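Project standup — Tuesday

K.O.: blocked on the structure for the chain from last sprint. Re-posting the sequence here as requested.
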Amino acid sequence: MKRLTGMFTAITLAFGMAACAPVMQNHGYAPDEELIAEIKAGEDTRGSVRRKIGRPGTNGVFSDTGWYYVASQVKNYMYYEPEVVSRRVVAVEFDENDVVSSVNSYGFEDGRIIDLQTRTTPTHGRQLTILQQILGNIGKITGEDLVPE
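H.V.: unblocked you, prediction finished:
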């Protein structure tokens, strides 16, 4: 019986230790530096870039002048908020003739924290409670409102 208790304790400790280990998750795709070095500004086109490093994860937002490859590595502990460990962004810019004008690679250290302001526009008028909203139309509906035309 002591042997089973010791075995059960060992198994429980092993699972407990495994639960404390972080789970690493990879998201997205950013090509290696060797592949990026093969892309030449002024020579390569959209088609040759697609053949060399694949299709992008994201295009330009307002115009299709750039392709963006984004890869992130996230560490997850069981009960904690996920933490981004690393991020790589490769930006390939094209000119009006679809020829590569620049290739840039950015890392986690190149990022900036942006302070978003959440302003709201005030509306004028009364704030009604839920009960006022439900009971507010009683007596305002007439028989003419219920008759189809």
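K.O.: great, moving the ticket to review. The CA atoms of residues 78 and 95 lie 46 Å apart. The radius of gyration is 29 Å.
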